[in-house]
Write a structure and sequence with these properties.
Length: 100
Amino acid sequence: MAYQIALPPNLANLHDVFHVSQLRKHMVDSSNIIALDDIQLKENLIFEVPPISITNRTTKHLRENEIPLVKVIWNRTIGDATWELEEKIRELYQDILNTS
């Protein structure tokens, strides 16, 4: 069983049919309001969230290999942070590593 959802015109490029298992009852919560102007979707419907800061560094040791990792803060308000390969972050966001 599926439902077709009426989407606003600026989201017309998204698929508008959802299976009932993906739908939940709407609970009003003013902290979950997202300004649509703040989200910049690419043509392939991917959006990029730039990192805010680097808070920690470590090295993972695997037998003969050492893998440098950095803890990246993506969103301070919800505490969204992940451990990423330092090389990958250096490649994508050179300026964030220079300031930390």
